[in-house]
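Q: Fold this one first, please.
A: Sequence and structure below.
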Amino acid sequence: QGELEYQTELRWVQLEPSESVVAACVDALLGILASSHDDPVAVADLVCLVDREEIGLGVARRLCEMQIRVVHTFGIGNDEKDAQEDGRRRKLRFYKGDARVKVTTIQSFKGWESRALVVQVSNASGPKGLALAYAGITRLKRSDRGCFLTVVCSAPRLREFGQTWPGG
């Protein structure tokens, strides 16, 4: 909240239950690309953090349909064991220098940062959900080239907090 000492574009997108979280996340990622005029954000700098794997997989699929290259950490397989094994392999190949949009869970991104971040929050019902939302929001990396943080929130509990943000 308040003025930051470096150029930061903050946005809060509060969703109604009937609105598509996947579509809102994709729109937020594309919005960051469109709004970075002076020093454009590279696709490789875009990160989408989600609190549920099925949402992240949906975002990755939608971006692929749009011919946007994506790397994600979500396992895909014929059964749960195959999916878990695939997820482990994907996490090993997931790195910040990859030239694709990165989509992963908030938990998987702990310790990392990005200057262009979309954080999806659907659960803020208790301390654990609020802590996870906080962990995601604090992954924004300071950059003299400007920073972009959009929160896509479908948690009604955070609606009032989101109204304090630009676009909230």
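Q: Good. Now the second chain.
A: Here it is, same layout.
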Amino acid sequence: MLSPAKADRLIRDGVAAMQRGAATEARRAFEQVAAAGGGIAPPWLLIAQACRLERDEAGERQALDRLLADQPRHLRGLLMKGDLLDRAGDARGAHSFRSLAVKVAELTPSIPPNLAAELARAREALKAGEGRYRAHLEERL
């Protein structure tokens, strides 16, 4: 079992590794914390971010699923899941997660600027998807 101080050091080391572009090293540090348990919240978002840097979509999906199981309205997690599904070609799934993220954001009093930019991108993707769907329906009719 990790002490809170050891877990904090591993997370700081992992963040520093990600800033250097060493995603695999970061992921190992974050996964050590996640595996330790003992009342320390697993850093699922950080694991997902490290997996994204490694281009490990399965690992990213698993970490995001764990994050969203614990925190179903985690704004950044919802946005990342939408992006992941979009990259995988699942437009419907991406739309669902982005729509939920926008709804959660509407109930969130203060959105950090970097997250606001991601939300704006999600809103644009939703608009584009609706346009494609409308064009598809018109073509069918």
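Q: Anything worth noting on the second one?
A: The longest helix spans residues 113-140.
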